[in-house]
Amino acid sequence: MELQPVTAEKGAEADISISVFLDRDSIVKTRLSKEYRHKELDDRIRMSRMKNEARILREARKANVRTPVIYDIDTKTYSLVMEKIEGVTVKNLLNDENCEWKPVCVEIGKTIADLHNARISHGDLTTSNMILMENKTICLIDMSLGKYPADLEDLGVDIHLLERAFSSAHPHLPDALEVLISSYIEYRDHGQETIDKMEEIRGRGRYT
Question: What is the pTM of this model?
Fold first, then answer.
């Protein structure tokens, strides 16, 4: 692995660094060890989650959903070396008062529909985990909590998380989620079933 770390960011579950891999700018995501876990269990969990994320990213790309390309997997350091995506996070974009948000929300809806049509859940679907690329394609990142094959409950949770994200991060765009959901239903096979499940999940939260 030919890596030259440039910058790093420490998260709760992983370290993210910007590096160079075979002359290409890359993102290195290294799963952190948890001292409170037995080492053998810790190693097993880190390996499982790393492989799961690699699998989810691969399956999403098979479904023509844009995700970072994986360049290398380091099983010794529990690291994924991935393509560095150029663009702007959708969260920052939608918080720009000059943003033309409607076409962005339509594209988000279509992207999620394509993902769900392939029976893949993201697991942490927020606008922070979406990057709008120069060609207006939405790239999904940080899919370590995703599932494949996902069931209707998993897909409903995705939409519920996205609903909460818009409510908390983009309250100044009250119509944005409606546009997104309309696009999702248009492109999603039996999309209304997922929306109904999302509403059921939302209802559970009110009374628990």
Answer: 0.90
